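queue> pop job 88
queue> type: inverse folding (structure -> sequence)
queue> payload:
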């Protein structure tokens, strides 16, 4: 009877509500599910001690549940060098053209960029060399390919430029890398993320709250 009552009460325990999944998620290694081994151990301990109040047993079972909420990631996110004047000009141009707000942004210097870097197996230095565009699950690009993929989500005539994807990536990346290596010398570098000077753009940034807290 004790086991039956405990099972009925376990079924009545409300599950934890996860925030809406916007597109895909990067979950940590800790599972949210109740460990069957932990339940069995708690139940055995309760029986051995002769617990009369099965609510205490239920409490002991729930207390051992490891709970970790995943970091929710959004699709079509550009992760870029936020202190680069050239990069910031490019971001402002995309925001102006992208009336449907398909593309979102994140400064690589922010903490919000870390889950995207881990998902793609990249370090910050990799993104400082070539910016990152995370299009969706398993779809991420860098450098010239990332730029053309961003253009493909913009309205015509800009999306037509994505046809340059037929050009071998090494050729386009050679031009990209030439400019990227000299961008600070040619266009300058700021001390902080430049979007802080254009706060009206922050509604398109996934790290908006972090930026406003600075």
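queue> result:
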């Amino acid at each position: 009877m004790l086991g039956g009552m405990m099972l009925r009460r376990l079924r009545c325990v409300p599950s934890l509500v996860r925030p809406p999944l916007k597109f895909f998620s990067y979950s940590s290694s800790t599972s949210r599910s109740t460990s069957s081994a932990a339940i069995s151990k708690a139940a055995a301990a309760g029986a051995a001690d002769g617990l009369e109040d099965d609510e205490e047993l239920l409490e002991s079972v729930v207390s051992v549940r490891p709970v970790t909420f995943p970091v929710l990631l959004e699709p079509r996110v550009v992760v870029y060098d936020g202190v680069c004047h050239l990069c910031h000009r490019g971001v402002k141009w995309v925001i102006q053209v992208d009336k449907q707000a398909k593309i979102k942004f994140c400064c690589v210097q922010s903490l919000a960029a870390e889950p995207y870097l881990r998902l793609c197996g990249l370090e910050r230095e990799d993104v400082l060399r070539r910016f990152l565009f995370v299009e969706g699950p398993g779809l991420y690009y860098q450098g010239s390919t990332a730029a053309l993929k961003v253009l493909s989500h913009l309205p015509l005539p800009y999306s037509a430029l994505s046809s340059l994807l037929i050009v071998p990536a090494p050729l386009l990346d050679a031009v990209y890398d030439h400019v990227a290596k000299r961008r600070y010398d040619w266009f300058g570098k700021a001390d902080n993320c430049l979007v802080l000077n254009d706060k009206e753009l922050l509604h398109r940034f996934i790290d908006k709250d972090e930026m406003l807290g600075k």
